[in-house]
Amino acid sequence: MKKILLIVFPLFFIVNYTLIIENCICQWTQCDGIYGGEILSLASSGNNIYAGTVINGVLLSTNNGTTWTQTSLNINFVNAVAASGSYVFAGTSNTGVYRSSNNGTVWTQTSLNNQNIYSITINGSNIFAGTDVGGIYLSTDNGNTWAQTSLNNQYIYSITISGTNIFAGTGNGVYLSTNNGSVWTQTSLNYRAVRTIAVSGNNVFAGTAGYGVYLSTNNGATFTQTNMTNQTVNSLAVSGGTIFAGTNSSGIYYTTNNGALWNSTFVNYPYVYSVIVTGSNIFAGIFNYGIYVSTNNGVNWTQCPVNKQGVSSFVSNGNNLYSGTAIGIYLSTDNGISWSQFGLNNMRIYSMFILGNYFLAGTDSAIYRSSNSGLNWTLSIHNGIAVNAFVHIGSKIFAGTNNGLYFSTNYGVMWNPTALTTQAIRSLLVGSDSTTIFAGTNGLGIIKSSNAGTNWTDGGLTGRTVYALLSVGSNFYAGTDLGVYNSTNSGTLWNQTILNNRVILSLASSGVNIFAGSNNNGVYYSGSSGANWIQKNQGFTVIPGVAALIVSNNYIFAGTNCYSVWRRSVNEIIGIKNISMEIPKEFKLFQNFPNPFNPTTKIRFALKEDARRKIQDGFIPLRRGVGGMMVSLKIYDITGKEIATLVNEALQPGMYEVTFDGKNLPSGIYFYELTAGDFVSVRKMLLIK
Hints:
By secondary structure, this protein is mainly β.
């Protein structure tokens, strides 16, 4: 019987392997409801809508904005997008124009590759690109080659084509070309910075910086100021007889009588950088708030589900989990599955603090206070300084700002400066003695006070920017601009861990397990007091910067720089442990222990350094704390059916241990298989209940 099993199982496994759906893999999943993003530009072609962003490159929707995905172009500052058929062009800061010929699936940088591009317009096979110092460039072959036009010394905000007329909005008014850009003539509107131009019939509308909208009824020969006279207008769009204007500070306006009267339609959010009309829908790209759509000509607006918000902080209170974002505080009452806007809308929240019914929020310029758990808010202090962290000793609350440390003895009603009046405080921690305060500074390391903030001395770690501080018993951790530092004696002496070449913005713990959020490399985990670290990024669609971490109700939540909130089971993320700093000389899968088992058992495996990867891929050894080869550890039943995936991630050379829990499985023979590069090993184990 045993011989049959050993023969049949590998054969079945080979056949079944390609049919496996890894629905057992636990990984990071994005939470829903914290919508937004820094949208700079919009364009449409057919059913496709494209959005150029500050951080997320180009986004694509193929279903009228119901869902959005990030295209493969994920660079920063896409100031302009244009689309025609399957061709899409993206104008970026510093890196010129990118082109896709397949609806954004694949992008290539064009030969116009070293300019700041602020506007792009397509006219057949002709592509016009507006720059900040070089004027307008023209490509007549779909972007393969580019030539500078005679309008070569202006800042070009916008380019609009109507028939044979090409209008350019510049820092010095409107220019017109009637011969495909060969010759340009300055129109009578020559004394305003023109951000945007729209054409409706014989009417030409020009949106300016600070002076509203101008109108020409004779192709730019003369312009007159409309009834909108004091707005900065970033975008104009035409829908039938209605003109929409996206402004810098007052939302969206519209006119149905060529500017004689403008009405406000969407005033909640400033910085409307782009408005487009596609079919019967109107889309508005709004800085920080993402994309909104109106299906009834601007009467009502709905936010599109673009989860591209920046999250800077977390705080929890019972079953309530709060996240501080660039547009206020969001609340989840269901373990992060869904989120809703909670308070301080339009505020950029850097830090939060809860003590009883008192709720404090630090913004980019002030502290706000609530005495009823966030139902109502009042301004506590406004000094134009960002507030990065809070801690308390009893009822004495400390606030770390970009200009020193403040304290309040009446729950934030009044604030007083401590002796730290000039240092930028990025993080705060109260020691286990409940009297020592550690302050992480910007470039000066850690400063500490042993008498509740009255006097301050050197904290043992100097010369570093300390973004995060954490204590687990007598072990202290500091997330810095050069990795994680650890102190085993309550902050007296600090040592750099092997995670020593990453900017660490956030720290969190679950028992002795430590999590570190990095600037642009996702999340790291250590189950050995910082001696070893494992990158834990499975599930992230793009590896994010993680500005905030919190453990709540057996989940770890990651607040990202531009991908909203993600969560992952703590039990799952700590399942694999790196148990040795020694680099093994061979790959090996060990017999599980105990075996037989009920219901849990430990599985160890050894990964040696892969010489080929070291040469070909720049493989980084274990002590560097990053990189690695793809490793999987899977469990199968006696029929060859996959039961669980315990490991599916990039790991460095080392000795690892993972716990397998068979509590939901029947007694029987199971197999576990390790795959690491070309190395494959299978062993048998026995579950007896």
